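Example 3.
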Amino acid sequence: MIDLLFFGIFAAVAVLCAINVVVQRHPISSALSLVGVMASLAVLYLLLGGEFIAMAQIIVYAGAVMVLFIFVIMLLNAGLEVRRGRSWMATLFGAPALLGLLGVLACLLVRWFPDSPIIKFGDFPGGTTKEIGMALFTDYLLPFEVTSVLILIAILGAVVLARKELD
Amino acid sequence: MPPIPNGVPMSFYLGLSAILFVIGVAGFIFRRNIITVFMCIELMLNAVNLSFVTFANHHKQVAGHIFTFFVMVVAAAEAAVGLAIILTVFKNRTTLNIDEVDSLKN
Amino acid sequence: MEFLIATSIKLGLIAFVLLTALAYIQWVERKVIAHVQVRMGPSRVGPHGLLQPLADVIKLITKEGVLPPHVNKVFYLAAPILAVFMALITISVIPFGTSVTALGHTTMMELADINVGVLVVLAVSSMGVYGIALAGWSSNNKYSLLGGLRSSAQMISYELPMSLAIAAPLLTAGSLSFRTITNAQAGYSLGVIPHWAIFAFPAPQIFSFIIFMIAAFAETNRIPFDLPEAENELVAGFHVEYSSMSFAAFFMAEYANMVTVCCVATLIFLGGWHPLWPAAYGSNFVAPLIFAGSGVICISHGINYVRPFDRITLPVFGVVFLGLAGIFLFPPLVPVLMPLFWFLAKVSFLLFVFIWIRATLPRFRYDQLMSFAWKFLFPVALVNLLLTGFLVALVS
């Protein structure tokens, strides 16, 4: 019961903030709404038993990635979005395509999970930091190392891109 | 009126994930500010992450969490490179409107 | 139900003590800096300026809250609330001592023992940057924008060495819950040397502690890293447009962050509420001795008074201190009060270090600040983590 209450509150917050991301005309408003989506998703991860992932979500997404976004928006002093309707293709075909996508997703959902199982808080104890650490450094060691190389490449790319304009 | 379940049905989580994903796609299509478009991509990634964590709970396996973790890490790297590209674009063209960044076309 | 009542009582108590402490840390800071600079400090309102915080709060509440016409109103008003909320909420996962048993119920001395407590503190403190960045941006003022930009870059940069410095002692503790980490530091080797993380056997975490404290100074925007609010280059940085309570909110957030950081350092590195030496050698008598000594000094100064009002105030303080000493000697209260005393003593010492450094060091230049974080602190923290991991693996 209380699970459902928490899910309802934070799902509503997530959806409203997500709509706000799209509707707001100023990038800072969009960015802060996105932070709201991420924070409410972190609460839902906690409900699903993913305590480490919930905290990583806040630390990595809300605390680092979005701060970077806000930093760039502030740095470029990005103002209100100018709407000139040059890409009429997107507007014309976008809305039907979206409705189609939502329809397909809903259809798949109903077909695959006709009587969906009930998820209760606390019935999945496998999301602890220990379990994730064990899995990450035994079964998934190669992806982990590959990801670290990817990050290294990304850092180099970002540095190169940022340096070029200084010359 | 069906009885109130003692917990949250899994389809609610998946439905929320689908709705968030579609909102992300909508922003990606309709928005013209390059930073907002980038944020909508992050929104889509988040929506998919919710599905991963839900399935991890359903299958009682930690693999979904691991995958979410990788998505986060890659998203962080992507944000660093993407924002560096946005900075460069802005320095060269002084615009953030994706419609005006079309020199490959002309 | 019992849980709800106990939590509400603890919530009220912690909120009252914390908010009062925040006001009085300001008073302590002014007094300490004044004495470092051979001045008196606040001394007019109340005996020894002890009512100065109250006067400050009344002044700030009754001042007009100016809403400049050129600001972005929503974010301008939300930023201080966000800053103070993120700063105060972390105290909920900090344990202050062992358990309390009252009226047959036993409760832990903290609001929530979360098994990812350390990550919660890191997560919430990383959200704290939004308050400052938004305040800087929404004020629509070039100085505050520069302050906000500086603070977001600085806080992202110093979060990395801070997290790495915290990660090293966690390797020996093997948990992310503050209570478990602190309990792992109980006991003494050779009878006297405490098992605190900074003295721990396979890998003493003294370097992690130093790195953590340096990064903590940057995370809380304190001198020598107070670039976001540098008075002489940015006027006052991100809060230049703020007045009244919203101005006070930023100060509250700064002091609350200081308290949180000191609590975390105490719990992770300095053994939390475990005393400096075993109770067998009389560590339980430190608190009564300190309070009794203070009481005797106060009374003797009150008898040989210098200023007329000392004749009344100092004996009153003396009696209060002697009473506190008596409470600390009361046997049923010893197992509750002793951990609390040691915890608060360590936290106060670290807070004093914060104030001491503010009175001692000048401010860094911005490029020095950044290159210090990335070229020195981060590699050192990384090597330290590597060595710790190696040593822990070698021993186990």
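The beta strands of chain C are 99-102, 105-108, 188-189, 193-194. The interface with chain A takes residues 75, 114-116, 119-120, 122-124, 126-127, 129-130, 133-134, 136-137, 145, 148-149, 152-153, 155-156, 159, 176 of chain C (CB under 8 Å).
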